[in-house]
Amino acid sequence: MARRNQDQPAQVGWTGLEIDEDMRFQRRDWTFERISWSLLALLVLAALLGAFSRGPLSKAVASDPDGILRITYDRFLRDDAASSIEIELARGATAGDQVELLLRGPMLRDLQLRNLSPEPLESRLAEDGWALRFPVRDRQAPSLIRMELRPETVGWLDGEIAAEGRQPVPIRAFVYP
Hints:
five-stranded antiparallel beta sheet; alpha+beta; Immunoglobulin-like
């Protein structure tokens, strides 16, 4: 049996490999890693809910105070990708067999209108936007107008849509690259 040298201190406990440890740094690194994983999980959840394209967060509904004009649109769009705006006029919204909609705001220069359904009877430039006159088939039933559009810019799109004689309804969307 070997004798212990009196000059060497006795080993009290073995802590593993003899490498340098910086537990303070290690704990900060673990905290940073947990925060990063949490942010990544939130990003994936936001994507699944539609924050970057289609999904429940992406759909927006705006209406005038009376509820006569109701607009459903995508809050998040992609540059040069098709999207649509649905405009619903409540029954009895107009006394005649036609309704005029006025589109205003910077969104007009940043969007390309691809298709309108039903086809407007008349379209013209108004003093502060674009006026479209649509037929109303049945005044006792809601009217639905669908606009297919394609954004041509990246960033915020702001505008408003108004039925003749009604308050304008603001709409705002963000276009991703």
